[in-house]
Amino acid sequence: MRAVNLLAGAALALTSVWAVAQEGPESLLPKMFDEPAPAPSRTAAPRPQAPRTQAPRPQASSSAPAAAAASGAPRPAATSTPVVQAVPTGTPGAMPTEIAQDDGTLRRIPTLEELERMSPEDFEALLGAKVVIDMPPAARRSADEAGMLGADEGGLPMASLAGQNGSLIRVALQGNRGQLVSRWGHILLRRALASRLNPPAGMSAADFMAMRVGLLLRMGETDAARVVLQDLDIADYTPAFGQVAFDVYARNADFTGMCPVMATQGSLRDDAAWNTSRTICEAFRGNSTAAISKLERDRVRGKMDQIDLLLAQKYAGAAGKARRAVTIEWDKVTTMTPWRYGLAIGTGLEPPAALMAQAGPSYDYATALAPMVGLARRAAAADRAAATGVLSNAAMVDLYSQIFADADVTGEWQDRAESLRDAYTLQDPAARLAAMQTLWNAKGSALYARQVLTAAAAARMAPSADMAEAAPSLIASMLAAGYDANALRWSSVVEAGSRAWGMLILAAPGRVATVGSSTLNTYVDNDDSTQKRRSAFLAAGLAGLERVDRADAERVVRDAGMGMGGSTRWTQAIDHAASRGDEASVALLAAFGMQGDNWQRMTPRHLYHIVAALRSVGLDAEARMIAAEAVARV
């Protein structure tokens, strides 16, 4: 047993990484820009050393406590179960006789150089069998409660779906393409999918988790998908879960993250991409020469496309000493895949702009979240990610703070960073507003993304009648990041029935006086949107929040050429879930009803039922923000 522990310590020494913190330049940004965390200590941890004493025979039962005491680890109780399988006495395979004897015992501990040359098969032969980890029951996690957020951490109640029809939840998860018209709807859906939830009736815990992680990936939430995935023990993976796990690590450009799965559940799949990923893991386990040779043989045999296996060779070449030059040519590549993009950015490559232009928005989300990508490329992708809900106001400000501090980033990105800093630091309120208006010089979703970027700066603006014309943009910016209390300070400045008033009357928390017909008519008269869609959304949102007479709301919607009444299977399902107080079902069904690439895909009927259902189950803040967003973005 001590021999196995010593081998493990020696293997750990081979893979240890020594990190030295670097001091960064002094920040010139205001305090609202996030400050970096304190630098870690420069004191390096001592390298574990393998004792040179001869290993005892396997039957010595006291070896495990002795090894634990020597390493400084807590001494296990006498009745605890060993976590590593003992070395058997069978023939240790083809290991040299100077290391192992015929009876399976070790003559001596292998040196670090000998361990480095061993393949995984040689190491397992040395032990006589695969290492088996016996996880104590207390360390195992229930698949029925897998997730990232508990109810006490902002997640939804765990038993929300316990009484729900599993078929309905399956449709809500699998039928959602991941693209929502509402930023706040996206945020709510991410929160629901990341919550620790019991599966609905008739659905296995593994299938429920796989569908949640799959939807997070379609939403572009690669980081959240990985965190949720890793809350499920690998031993609980099903064959259907293999594809989901593979996609998670490919989209995160973290192919070594698959290695624990390959080591314990390598038989979940048997296809070219899966086996290539297994070979990459072999390279990072110390057998890089053989792994790269195998990848080259697979390329010659046409196991995958040339570009896929060349990228895999380049990625695997980062491990060990078997480095080789790999030339990547994109001329004949016509489509981008998560596998190709993950390997490319993981090795510091930048695919051609023309190829990325037709790849779809999900790659922008991945780029915006990828720390290994350059700041300029991340900034170019950040607008789409922020408007969707993938990036928060704080994340956007942090990104542009890094751009401002990096002298190598020039051009429009540095200009935007300087404008953002001016929006925070200039003394004159008019000058700060002018800096924000410079950033708002965009249209569509890009404009909304810039309003997300300036939300905290807008929240610092004191209400002023001199800025009444800019009030709609300032209020929309504040509400984009949830600064409703700051936005409501402008109530004394804006006029009833104006565009700014419409956002405030929807965003206000608590009880609000019912909006009269005359004020609603004034808003309709001032509405310059196409076919009065903004007025229709205002009426539907107010009706869902019970802040206007239902008859007045239906009249405004009808005059805009649309309807708010009627019943469909979706309206019946979300209303029924709301009547039972089922927060999770309401969130999933609301997201299902908000699918689309812009607010033109939303109808007043859907908005009314979504807002009403969310308010009914206690998600009042989300209901208000979604209603206000509808008015702000039309």
From TrEMBL:
- From the UniProt annotation, give the residues forming the signal peptide: 1-21
Where does the record place the region Disordered? 29-106
Query: Where in the sequence does UniProt note compositional bias of the Low complexity kind?
Result: 40-82
Highest taxon above the source species: Bacteria
Q: Which UniProt keywords apply?
A: Signal
> Could you identify this protein by its name?
Antifreeze glycopeptide polyprotein
